[in-house]
Design brief:
Elements: E1 2-6, H1 11-21, E2 27-31, H2 41-48, E3 53-56, H3 63-68, H4 70-91, E4 94-100, H5 123-138, E5 143-148, E6 151-152, H6 159-167, E7 173-176, E8 180-181, E9 184-185, H7 186-201, E10 208-211, E11 218-219, H8 220-230, E12 238-241, H9 262-265, H10 274-281
Parallel strand pairs: 1-2, 1-3, 3-4, 4-5, 5-10, 6-9, 7-12
Antiparallel strand pairs: 8-11
Helix pairs in contact: 1-7, 2-4, 4-5, 6-8
Length: 294
């Protein structure tokens, strides 16, 4: 399996490279944003040549920034994905493209299935939906969209890292308790993406949309309390509040829980429960975390 990982310097990209390095006889080309500008169609076509699978971990992830400059966000999350899909079509490669829960409006009360109607409520969601549509249009037989949400990991910024950074700075933290979702460790998602790539090459995984989030659900408040408890901090220092208290440029979906039915069709289990995965991310068997904790 000859794999190209774009965005290899980011949180998910670095985990993907680590997982692929543990595969037998890995043949991995890992390119950071500085090494490959995915908005450059010619550069993308040259980079994809010679690979069986492309995993696109490059993305515009600044949700509020997308609200201020939707055109720039769409250039990365939409137009550039079309370049990748066209290159994969030309070179016979499969494309695995992570997307987001933000393509949904967040007004559901039960988990969104993979084929649920989309309806993003912010610019970031619209930019990511443009990328999804490019994959399904240009690669109907070899394109894979994997929606994820509430991603955290050792590399890069995340809600988990912010909570641990603030633990030394404030006695109490007010955290939103009216948004529900599925915290997902980037390391677990990376393993799932590699497994999907292998299943796709073996002809077991049909193309289309999959949901790559951990099972179960909680709120940001519930996640913050769990993070504090795992690090020996008092969860009572986390206090619940509402989204109305934290006005931001981009509106956030209130309900971001995704269903996982399609994994069974690919012969793969869905990701584990969010709390068990959070515990696994901080087990002593893992390398020491660079995150500062009290």
């Amino acid at each position: 399996m000859r794999v190209l990982v774009t965005g290899a310097g980011g949180m998910l990209g670095r985990d993907l490279v680590d997982v692929l390095a543990g595969q037998p006889d890995p043949k991995v080309t890992a390119v950071s944003r500085a090494e490959l500008d995915i908005t450059d169609a010619a550069a993308v076509h040259a980079a994809v040549d010679g690979h069986d699978v492309v995993v696109n971990a490059a993305a515009w992830t600044d949700v509020d920034g997308a609200e201020r400059d939707e055109r720039a966000a769409t250039a990365v999350n939409g137009d550039a994905v079309a370049h990748l899909a066209a290159a994969c079509a030309a070179h016979g490669a499969r494309l695995l493209h992570p997307s987001t829960d933000y393509v949904f409006p967040g007004d559901a009360t039960v988990p969104y299935p993979e084929d649920a109607p989309t309806g993003p409520i912010n610019a970031y969601g619209r930019s990511k939906l443009a990328g999804e549509r490019a994959v399904t249009r240009l690669l109907p037989d070899t394109g894979y969209v994997v929606r994820t949400a509430w991603l955290y990991g050792v590399h890069g910024r995340s809600f988990v890292r912010t909570m641990l950074d603030l633990a030394d700075q404030r006695e109490f933290l007010d955290v939103v308790d009216d948004q529900r979702g599925q915290p997902t460790w980037s390391g677990a998602l990376a393993r799932q993406l590699v497994a999907l790539a292998e299943s796709a090459l073996a002809g077991r995984a049909a193309p289309g949309v999959y949901h790559g989030t951990c099972s179960g659900e909680t709120t940001w408040y519930g996640l913050a309390r769990a993070v504090f408890a795992l690090h020996g901090l008092d969860p009572a220092r986390i206090r619940p509040t509402t989204s109305a208290r934290f006005r931001r440029p981009a509106p956030r979906p209130a309900y971001s829980v995704l269903g996982h039915d399609r994994w069974a069709d690919a012969g793969l289990p869905p990701l584990p429960a969010w709390h068990a995965t959070l515990v696994a991310a901080f087990t002593p068997a893992r390398p020491p975390s660079p995150w500062k904790v009290a």
